[in-house]
Amino acid sequence: MPQATNTPVRSAYDALVSRGAITPDAAQRDAVAELDRVLADLTASRPSGFFARLFDKPEPVRGLYLHGEVGRGKTMLMDLFFAAVPLAEKRRVHFHEFMDEVHAGIAAFRKSAKGRDHDADPVEAVVRPMLKRGLRLLCLDEFHVHDITNAMLLYRLFYKLFAGGVTLVATSNVVPDELYKDGLNRQLFLPFIELLKQRTVVAALPAAQDYRRLKFAGQHVYAFGTGPDVRAAMDRLWLRITGGEPGEPGTVESIGRHIHVPLTAMGAARFGFADVCDKPLGTRDFVRIAHQFDSVIIDDVPQMDHTRSDAAKRFILLIDSLYDRGVKLGASFAVPLDQLGKDDRTAFEFQRTVSRLTEMQSEEYLEKALRDSPADTPT
């Protein structure tokens, strides 16, 4: 059956193809058709009029669970879909971070007066505010389940979300039947898998290439020194990994705050050193950045002496977060790597950072896929 070519996600995808930012891929186009189906159903079921939006329960819309190997374009397609959905009542977040928030909400409720009631339902207490805010669409990147705490929680959590009219669109590296594989008491998790398959269309993305790895093949990802030549080298690398897209400002949501990102495009982010290391950011912020982007460029990394101790500590935490996740790094440095850390207070930690920076420019590191998220346990 011929596919419509003027639907929102398809139009955005074809625009990227026409600009040369991506290579057309039949499997990606099939996924685009499913995303446009979800978008159309969401738009058609949206209550119209003030009182309808206030009192009418939205019609449930069957979502999408898109799975495939790393680097096949799942995140890029999610970007296009989320941007195209004309609803304010939507949210996109990494699965690990979403569950982190759920656990934090449950813990806070249990400490409250209401939470001490033996009949209190902490899951209901977490879901209710989402529904009161009118959440219609929840987009979760990298859906995976390794921890028994999440495994036992997911059925109750998503049963209530789905019952409240929330549509789920998720990306994952595994099919639903492989979630929590070989996990403890897995038989108790199976009802969630069935619920997930009932409320989403499960679609594979068997794209032909690992596009993420192709971006960095044969590239020099570091430049040293200052001046226009170094900046030009970083500009060329940026355009290489974004497929020629110049990018636009973006944000990373972190614990209710919004971290400004000067440039984002095609799953990549570009910061100046001052944007991430001269601001009051911490480990959780850097982990969020590492989850949101598969590639990061940092411009103008200076030599860090005793006058930059705080910035040096943040830089160490940032590199740790990117390295642990397997994020690809491009950067310009004022001095060679072995001369970066000149502060006695951070000298020991900086040795590990320099070692990781050295590894992160290697072909072996650049060819590897993103590493799995940390164990999805409550914090």
From TrEMBL:
Keywords: ATP-binding, Cell cycle, Cell division, Nucleotide-binding. The keyword ATP-binding applies. It holds the Pfam family AFG1_ATPase. GO terms for biological process: cell division. The keyword Cytoplasm does not apply. NCBIfam families: ZapE (NF040713). This is Cell division protein ZapE. The lineage of its organism: Bacteria, Pseudomonadati, Pseudomonadota, Alphaproteobacteria, Hyphomicrobiales.
